[in-house]
Write a structure and sequence with these properties.
Blueprint: H1 11-49, H2 56-65, H3 81-92, H4 100-111, H5 122-133, H6 137-147, H7 152-165, H8 173-197
Helix pairs in contact: 1-2, 1-5, 2-4, 3-4, 4-5, 6-7
Length: 201
């Protein structure tokens, strides 16, 4: 068991251990796509927290584990990837000294990272909002097209769906402001895409 203590003065040690073990795991499962999504979430959470306190250790752990259930190593047919990721995270938690309340929060964050109703913790709201933001704007467009290569119509439809559905999930004011900016970017892209594709895509 990794012996981690989660005070601020040892956050660097925690991060070192997390990076060594969980970054390797997410990279093995999801490649650069999954790894860099996780890294962006850590920064997005800090941005939209807007100076409010949150448990950085929980966010670090969730960033690298919340999508594991979407990848072939762990995915199970008929089980939503968030539910499956929660199951996988529960087995990983035995290697880290999170207390009972922190473990419950971690599982809540992972299970609800696509849900309107996230549970009681601030970390869960932060993480859900950050995850939604990462599918908006130019980065969201790039993610959609990279997920469905050579299928422009499906990617374009996915972008439209994200523009419509994801802002409705977002709760925090800072995140809402960023979402509005990113939606404008997506609207510009959609307009130019339709023009330049000559409606053949």
């Amino acid at each position: 068991m990794v012996n981690l203590f989660f005070q601020k003065d040892t956050l660097g040690f925690f991060m070192k251990e997390i990076m060594k073990k969980l970054e390797s795991l997410i990279h093995e499962c999801g490649g650069e796509y999954g790894l860099n999504h996780s890294r962006r979430l850590i920064k997005l959470v800090d941005l939209i927290a807007d100076g409010k306190n949150y448990n950085k250790n929980i966010i670090l752990f969730c960033s690298f584990t919340h999508d594991l259930g979407a990848f072939s190593r762990y995915a199970k047919e008929g089980i939503h990837h968030a539910i499956r990721s929660r199951e996988v995270a529960e087995t990983l938690l035995v290697n880290y000294n999170f207390d009972q309340k922190e473990q419950q929060t971690i599982l809540e964050v992972i299970e609800n990272h696509h849900n309107k109703f996230t549970g009681e913790s601030f970390e869960s709201v932060l993480f859900r909002d950050a995850d939604a933001l990462d599918f908006l704007g130019f980065i969201g467009i790039a993610r959609d097209f990279s997920r469905i290569p050579k299928q422009l119509k499906k990617s374009f439809q996915s972008i439209h769906r994200h523009m419509k559905d994801l802002p409705e999930l977002i709760e925090l004011q800072k995140a809402k402001g960023l979402a509005m900016e990113r939606i404008k970017e997506m609207e510009y892209f959609r307009k130019k895409f339709l023009q330049e594709s000559l409606n053949h895509y």
